[in-house]
Design brief:
The protein has 221 residues and is an alpha/beta fold. The protein contains six helices and nine strands; from the N terminus they run ααβαβαββαβββαββ. Helix content is 26%, strand content 29%. Strand 2, helix 4 and strand 3 form a beta-alpha-beta unit. A seven-stranded mixed β-sheet has the order 3-2-1-4-5-9-8. The protein has a two-stranded antiparallel sheet with strand order 6-7.
Length: 221
Amino acid sequence: MKNQDPYDRQRSFFQEAYASGKTGWPKTGASKVVESAGAMGFFKKGMKFLEIGCGQGRNLLPPLLSGCHVVGVDSVLSPLLEVRRDPVFSGALLVKGDLFNLPFRRGSFDVVLDFGVLHHMRAPQRKKYPHWIGEMLSPSGVFLLGAFSEHFQHYPGEKRSRNWISHRGHYDVFFDQNAFSRVMGKNWKLLYESEETACGDIHHYRLGIFGRSERTSKKDF
């Protein structure tokens, strides 16, 4: 991919965050979008589940306990090593890699989760993102997404004049309800949407479960 430098810098930011222990995002307890997917019956024994940007593994446990074949991918090695040392995640396959070059065959997964990757992508990559996700999912698969909402604050009282910022070596984009509902494009439909907060109420996320639209043809993925 052209112009990898911004993503190399972001990787360094996350490496430093994990090394310092000051990550600023939830470390334990699955996101509500994962819990909701389980309640809706999307985690069944034998299904294949992938999380991109799995970090310290908090969202891997519900599908693992449901009998899914679970794969977690992160571009930073240190949190993966932490997860590997925890016996509760025994059976999960953990892979160091990134969304732009994942080592999986087309249609490998029944469920793909992204909690925290999309909102660090710049516009050219966000445009290609639905295709990348579609390549990994089976035709009947579902996609779970958690991303920064327009109400997200890095600190109490933060003000922004636009829906993105570049700071501290990384890029953040924020989604209002309309932008979030359309982020996967015309070949996807929003099956479920919700919101959740962390760090008090300043870290605000939009949550969604997406499936392919009925008009999606095989040539579209």
